[in-house]
Amino acid sequence: MTTLAPSEGGEALVLARTTVEGIPDCVVFPHEQSRGMRVATLLASAALGVGVAAIGSRHPGAEPLGIGLLLGLTFMGGLLSTWSPCGYSSLCLLRPSGNYSPRSLLRYTPTVLLHGLGYAAGAVVLGGALGFAGSMAGFAGASLAAAIGLGLVALLYGAHQLGFVKVPYPQRRAQVPHDARQRFPKWFIGGLYGFSLGLNYLTYVQTPILYLVTAAAVLSGYVVTAIALFAVFNAGRFLPILVNYLPVRDIDVQNWLARRQEGAALLDGALLVAFGAALLTLATL
């Protein structure tokens, strides 16, 4: 299995296998999380999802609750995508230059702003395309069939992340172009990386929550709704870059992420299971 470890220079986490084909389809980390722990996580997450849906259904209309849960899952999916090769790369390559100071942070700000604009542009392009495709296919937002379908997919991918089943996980197994930093200024790289990552399918994303967001965008049948979903997802992807404004060493950030890699995968599966259980409960009440 591909692992992440600090590089000799202390500036990045690198893949043990350097080829893009080495990026795994299924992220399962059994070293810290035993099978018993993962079974308990699955059951507790399912119970939590059912409980939240049962309590929420007492109020008029289940649709607002379902939308709220979807938006929360969407944002967390973007945030959890930090635990991937591209997430590590962006945090370490888009660092402020020079010593930490107000002046260096000021020079760094255009990079961050263009990075965020790249994410926004990616959300518009991808969300717009998926929303338009959904409208052409005749989808028109929330329906019982859509809720059941999304719920079942969420449960399957939750079990996939927790290591109990193997579900197809097709993606382009590539990272952001590292050689770009040798050919372009940092502010340009910030925008380039933001747009590449904001399109989500140009690079590898280790959380299947992306598939739930994609399906929801298509099923919405509305361009604006689909763009909004990916804007929320990409906001979660963008947020971690702000840590570079803090007076912390890059190696400390990278090691913090590495120590929590397995916990992030466990949380990923738990969120998917809880969401799926909640959606199926709302659909049947």
Automatic annotation (TrEMBL):
Q: Indicate yes or no for the key word Transmembrane.
A: yes
Statement: the UniProt record of this protein carries the keyword Membrane: yes
Please list every transmembrane segment annotated in the UniProt record, as residue ranges.
Answer: 39-57, 69-91, 112-133, 139-163, 184-203, 209-233, 264-283
Keywords from the UniProt entry: Membrane, Transmembrane, Transmembrane helix
Question: What is the protein name stated in its UniProt record?
Answer: Methylamine utilization protein MauF
Q: Which organism is it from?
A: Ancylobacter crimeensis
Organismal lineage: Bacteria, Pseudomonadati, Pseudomonadota, Alphaproteobacteria, Hyphomicrobiales
